[in-house]
Amino acid sequence: MNMDNPTKKTSLLLTGSEGMLGRYLVKQFDDCDITRLNRRETPGGIACDLAESIPALPIKPFDIVIHAAGSRNNDDALKVNLEGTRHLLQALETCPPKYFVFISDAAVHGLYGAENITEETPQHVSDKVGQSKFLAEKEVSEWAQRHNVTLTILRPAPMFGSGISGEMARLFAEVANNRYIHIRGNDAHLGIVTAYDVARVAKTLYTSGGVFIVADGRNRTLVDLVEAMSANASVRKRLVYLPPKWAALGRFIPGLRHILDPDTLQRRAVTLTYNPAHLTATIPFTLYDTVEVIARRDKDYPYEDQ
Length: 306
Description:
Strand content: 15-25%
Structural class: alpha/beta
Oligomer: single chain
Distance between the termini: 28 Å
Largest sheet: 7 strands, parallel
Low-confidence stretches: none
CATH superfamily of the domain at 11-163 and 193-215 and 275-283: NAD(P)-binding Rossmann-like Domain
């Protein structure tokens, strides 16, 4: 609802509405008049590749802008995340919104093997994804301050939901096809969150402003996650464990080279957890246990096929 005119729907410009998180945001903000900005044409939307050009927006201020378009690929992260954000801000220059939500990434902290990361943890960017989001946060913050826009920055941990992609999608595919091998001694813990909860947080906090780590706070093990994926895919075989020294040799065996790729194994052996205390003290609900959701054991979670 528009706070100035209760009879008028709140107007929302949403970038990246066709991405995994974008689809959850559309559902959370279904009481708004949503204009979708994507790379390709969508009904009633605006087609623009933000990485390449400035979009032609209506000459009117939106009540809310949620910038969810982005990339977790180091090859194009700077182009998509930083240049894309700059192009969006330029398009909004003459008609800034009341509220701006920027979907950043917990990767802005750039830590490799760290626990209990909070919003106050120093940022030591270590890859292009983290660097691009870090720089984009800075530019959005300066722009919002100049235009007196209420800015909410969300830094999600790796997200799970319908339409998952990237590294976690590859892991799920290995599990579902009985190709996952766990290296004995790997007790890495992970901070994760459902895309549904990230969307709920955006809906709850967009008028408040602030910076928030968004993670479910359970910090489960990689084994917990793999077993949940196995349950989701109805794969009943026991987890295969391999001693580290065998894994080092296994990458030379045809058929195991991809599964036992050293870079992949190293990445999956790193503990990276988050402390969402600031968030949980601010929102009026409890985030779902992502592992229980993936395993489809949470009877209260609104699964899309129910």
